[in-house]
Specification:
Number of helices: 4
Strand order of the largest sheet: 3-4-6-5
CATH topology of the largest domain: Topoisomerase I, Chain A, domain 4
Number of strands: 6
Order of helices and strands: HEEEEHEEHH
Shape: elongated
CATH superfamily of the largest domain: Ribosome-recycling factor
CATH class of the largest domain: Mainly Alpha
Oligomer: single chain
Strand content: 5-15%
Distance between the termini: 55 Å
Structural class: alpha+beta
C-alpha cells in the first residue's frame, strides 16, 4: 500500500510541476515592454514545406532593450519569417533591410500594462486550478484505496502530504505571478 501511495504522490507532484512549467512558458510570451526572444517562442516558419520553429532557421538576439533582431541563416527565409511573425499576431511589426528582420518593441501604455497584469493573473489562476485538480484526483485515488483496505490513518497522512504539496506549488505560482506583475508595471 505504501508504494501505491507513493506512486500517486509522485504522479501528483509531476502534474503540479508540469503546470508550473507551462505557466513559466506562458509568462515568457507576455511582453513586458522589454525586448526578449521569448516573445517569439511558438512561432513556426514554413521551411521548405515543413513547419519549423523560428529559432531553428535563424539567430534571434536583442541588441538593445527595445529591439529584437532576427538573422535568417538563408536570405530566402526573410519573407516566410516575416509572414510567420505577422500571422502569429504578437503585436510587433517586422521591418527588414534585406538581411536582418528587426522588431521594435514599443513602450507599454498604462492601460496596456493593466491589461497584461490581468492576463497574467488569469494564467496564474488557471495554473492553480490545474494544481487543485491534481490534488483532487490524487485524493479520490486514496479514497478508492481506502475501500480496498487502506487504513484511515494512512489515508489522512497521504491527503495531508498532497495538501502540503498543493500549498507549496500554489505559493510558487503566486511568486511567479507577482514577479511578472512587477516586471510589467516597472517602467
Amino acid at each position: 500500500m505504501e508504494e501505491e501511495i507513493q506512486l500517486y504522490l509522485d504522479d501528483a507532484r509531476d502534474s503540479m510541476k508540469k503546470a508550473i512549467g507551462h505557466l513559466e512558458e506562458e509568462l515568457l510570451r507576455v511582453r513586458a515592454g522589454k525586448a526578449t526572444p521569448g516573445v517569439l517562442e511558438g512561432i513556426f516558419v514554413d521551411y521548405y514545406g515543413s513547419q519549423t520553429p523560428l529559432s531553428q532557421v535563424s539567430n534571434v538576439s536583442t541588441p538593445d532593450a527595445k529591439t529584437i533582431a532576427i538573422q535568417p541563416w538563408e536570405k530566402n527565409m526573410i519573407d516566410p519569417i516575416e509572414k510567420a511573425i505577422m500571422a502569429a499576431n504578437i503585436g510587433l511589426t517586422p521591418v527588414n533591410n534585406g538581411e536582418i528582420i528587426r522588431l521594435n518593441v514599443p513602450p507599454l501604455t498604462e492601460e496596456r500594462r493593466k491589461e497584461l497584469v490581468k492576463k497574467v493573473k488569469v494564467l496564474g489562476e488557471n495554473t492553480k486550478v490545474s494544481i487543485r485538480n491534481a490534488r483532487r484526483d490524487t485524493n479520490e485515488a486514496f479514497k478508492q484505496m481506502k475501500k480496498n483496505g487502506l487504513s484511515e490513518d494512512q489515508e489522512k497522512d497521504a491527503e495531508a502530504k498532497v495538501q502540503d504539496m498543493t500549498n507549496k506549488y500554489t505559493e510558487k505560482v503566486d511568486v511567479l505571478i507577482n514577479d511578472k506583475e512587477k516586471d510589467i508595471m516597472t517602467i
